[in-house]
From TrEMBL:
SUPFAM superfamilies: Thiolase-like. This is Beta-ketoacyl synthase-like N-terminal domain-containing protein. Gene3D superfamilies: 3.40.47.10. Residues 63-157 form the Beta-ketoacyl synthase-like N-terminal domain.
Length: 175
């Protein structure tokens, strides 16, 4: 016998964006130690930090809450993929940091460890609406009891500039 899981409506608790007023979009986000040659991971880290700081202040987040992370990107880390492709095409050695950072879970794990988040980490690359895919996954994590809140991070690198959004969501009505 199967049991239906009720999918909650999501409520956005707080959010952050890149770029926002005061950001130097041409220079990119602040450097993130251990992640080289690409803005992808630094984008994830800066919007996650801003979003979580607005609620929790400094690290770590509130103990006892299960906060998951859903990282969503339709294109992934395009800059790192292109750098690795070029290195291989030129017959050059690919540095070990590229193997580490080319997996989106790496930066999601970095954010979780930095903030003391105790929830699942999920990375998605949907063909359709990235925001809806992230919200659908967050709703499932909350409905299953795996997370009380979910940090949904949407990041894209593009020829017109990089963008990132972090939204901390929970289920239920505003209190």
């Amino acid at each position: 016998m199967s049991h239906a899981v009720e999918i909650p409506e999501l409520r956005v608790i707080t959010d952050s964006h890149w770029p926002q007023p005061g950001d130097d979009a041409l220079a990119g986000p602040p450097v993130l130690p251990g992640f080289i040659g690409s803005t992808f991971s630094p984008l994830v880290a800066v919007v996650a930090d801003r979003c979580l700081q607005s609620l929790y202040g400094e690290v770590p987040a509130k103990q006892g809450e299960k906060v998951g992370i859903v990282l969503v990107s339709r294109t992934g880390d395009r800059a790192s993929a292109e750098q690795v492709r070029q290195l291989v095409a030129d017959g050059k050695r690919v540095g070990p940091l590229y193997f580490f950072q080319s997996v989106p879970n790496s930066v999601a794990g970095y954010v979780a460890a930095r903030w003391g988040l105790h929830g699942p980490v999920v990375c998605l690359s949907p063909a359709g609406d990235a925001r809806q895919a992230g919200f659908d996954q967050a709703a499932l994590l909350i409905a299953d009891g795996d997370a009380d809140q979910v940090l949904v991070v949407l990041v894209e690198q593009g020829s017109q500039g990089d963008t990132a959004v972090a939204l901390l969501v929970s289920g239920g009505e505003p209190s």
